[in-house]
Amino acid sequence: MTSSRKDIKNAVKAVIGTVPGIKAVYTNMPRQQQVFPAVVIAFDKVHEKAATLGNPSRRHITYTVTLYIQSIDANPNEQAAQEEFDDMLDLIDEALRSNKDLDGAALKSAYEYIDTDAFEPQIAGQGQALILRAVKTFTVLVEIMG
Predict the structure, then answer these.
(1) What residue ranges do the domains of the chain occupy?
(2) What is the pTM of this model?
(3) In sequence order, which residues have a C-beta less than 8 Å from that of residue 48 and are 6 or more positions away?
(4) Is the CATH number 3.40.50.2020 carried by domain 5-145?
(5) Local confidence pLDDT in tens for the 146 residues of the chain
(6) How, if at all, do strands 24-26 and 38-52 pair?
(7) What gap in Å lies between CA 92 and CA 114, rounded to an integer?
(8) Dihedral, CA atoms, 87, 91, 94, 100, nearest 10 degrees?
């Protein structure tokens, strides 16, 4: 199995794209996001090491994948907006757990942990909208030969 960074990002994008309610998934940070809720996929860390001591050509790459999630919600009921966002975060976790090898692009995905950091909601548009943000982090393990 040989998967490039692009392959892994696209595989994660395919999984996240199945989550109901997410309107846009990006593999790079767009200059302007116009559609929400949106998810941006990034690699915050990539670690490569020998898979076994006896075969140096067999390598494991661990990608630390970060999902930047943002929603702008005009629902006048702040509690309902927050609950919808929380439900979406749970659905992202379920999608990641249900596809442990990213349709064959990885040996394992989201196998050790899925961390979620949520941020304080902010009011935008003179009180007309609520900005909700979270960051999810998990690892993807890939094996390469060479």
Answers:
(1) 5-145
(2) 0.91
(3) 59, 60, 61, 62
(4) no
(5) 567 899 999 999 999 999 999 999 999 888 887 889 999 999 989 898 887 777 777 889 999 999 999 999 887 788 899 999 999 999 999 999 999 999 999 999 999 999 999 999 998 877 788 999 999 999 999 988 87
(6) parallel
(7) 10
(8) -150
